[in-house]
Write a structure and sequence with these properties.
By secondary structure, this protein is mostly beta strands. The chain has no helices and six strands. The strands form two sheets. It has a four-stranded antiparallel beta sheet, with no helix packed on it. A two-stranded antiparallel sheet has the order 3-6.
Length: 72
């Protein structure tokens, strides 16, 4: 519930609880039906949050819309 961009294409997504013991995944996508350009996405854990990084198709950091899912 809420994320903040720390730099181009880098987000730390926080939740109501610490998710460091959970598993998570992310995919590029929109919620309004708009097309999302080709790209890449990575996830990792950082301080109880999920760090998401998005890149364009050539691997350069880019601000792209995404969905993230956490299972605890």
């Amino acid at each position: 519930s809420g994320g903040n961009a720390s730099s181009v294409g880098a987000y730390n997504v926080g939740f109501a609880q610490d998710v460091s013991a959970c598993v998570y995944t992310a995919t590029l996508g929109s919620t309004d039906g708009s097309d999302v350009p080709p790209g890449r996405i990575t996830v990792s854990g950082v301080g109880g949050k999920v760090a998401v990084k998005t890149f364009d198709a050539t691997g350069n950091p880019a601000d792209l819309p995404f969905h993230v899912m956490v299972a605890c």
